[in-house]
Specification:
Blueprint (H helix, E strand, L loop, with lengths): L21 E2 L6 E2 L25 H6 L5 H6 L1 H5 L20 E4 L2 E4 L30 H12 L6 H5 E2 L2 E2 L3 H7 L7 H13 L2 H14 L5 H12 L1 H11 L8 H18 L6
Antiparallel strand pairs: 1-2, 3-4, 5-6
Helix pairs in contact: 4-6, 7-8, 8-11
Length: 275
């Protein structure tokens, strides 16, 4: 039988879980009669008595200290001093500066002071060690959002992050580009133009697919619009042979669509995603 937390077993008369009415003779923990002694391993584990809190911590928590309310309101900030603890670690590895310290054999990371500056409320007096989550550039909007959060100080909304010189950009990527945080396409333009001198359309599509997957083009759509004729040259040739004397301009969108389908197949074959 598998235990399900959503089921009220106490109301089912066919199920008897027992009552925790038996007391451990070693540590006085309550347990069911059938349950083995896992509280103190039958007296093998001797837990020390909980000592009284030292001052001024005792007064701060119990309300005897004048800063009691301020301490309770900000207790999570104080506890965050040890949120990056490596429990059980015994060795400190230093690399040029003191980054860690020990408390009773456990290694802790050094962070900044919790005391705010008097002139800048809410700003720490010293530098603090923060944690930045890694985001792959393929996760475009999250990646560029994090980039903006690193560069723009004191944003009040997500819309504010997209606003550059009074203009609201459509995406976070566009905002990064407007702020000059991204490289332009000059390097990739040079690469494609050199490949066009001797490469077939098939090879050009392979190159473009490689750029899409591994090079994080800042504006892939504009890049496509610029080189779509060269990328689809062989498809144009086949279509011209098929329609002969008909108007080629009438099938221009079909040619580009076929080129995009072929390009997408190449991207997928290289391990990329659908366009």
């Amino acid at each position: 039988m598998t235990y399900e937390s959503e089921i009220a077993y106490e109301t089912d008369k066919t199920v008897s879980l027992g009552t925790m009415s038996h007391k451990c003779v070693y540590c006085n923990a309550l347990k069911c009669r059938e349950a083995p002694g896992m509280c103190c391993s039958a007296g093998k584990v001797q837990l020390p008595y909980f000592l009284p809190l030292p001052e001024p911590l005792y007064s701060l928590i119990m309300g005897f200290h004048p800063d009691h309310k301020n301490f309770i309101d900000r207790i999570r900030k104080y506890n965050n001093c040890f949120q990056m603890t490596y429990f059980g670690a015994k060795q400190i590895i230093e690399d040029g500066f003191m980054l860690t310290f020990k408390v009773k054999g456990q290694v802790y990371h050094l962070i900044g002071s919790l005391q705010a500056c008097l002139t800048w409320p809410g700003i720490k007096r010293d530098q603090a060690l923060g944690r930045v989550y890694t985001i792959h550039p393929n996760n475009t909007e999250c990646y560029y959002l994090r980039l903006l959060l690193h560069e723009i100080r004191g944003p009040t909304s997500f819309l504010k992050l997209k606003t550059v010189n009074g203009t609201i950009q459509p995406t976070y990527q566009a905002a990064c580009k407007a702020l000059g945080l991204l490289e332009d396409e000059r390097y990739w333009d040079t690469t494609m133009e050199e490949a066009m001198l001797c490469g077939s359309p098939f090879k050009l599509r392979e190159l473009f697919a490689f750029m899409l997957i591994f090079c994080q083009l800042s504006d892939a759509l504009s890049f496509w619009e610029k080189y779509k004729d060269s990328l689809s040259e062989d498809i144009w040739h086949r279509v011209e042979l098929d329609i002969q004397h008909e108007n080629v301009n009438s099938v221009i969108n079909e040619v580009y669509n076929k080129c995009l389908v072929t390009l997408e197949d190449t991207v997928l074959s290289l391990g990329g995603k659908f366009l």
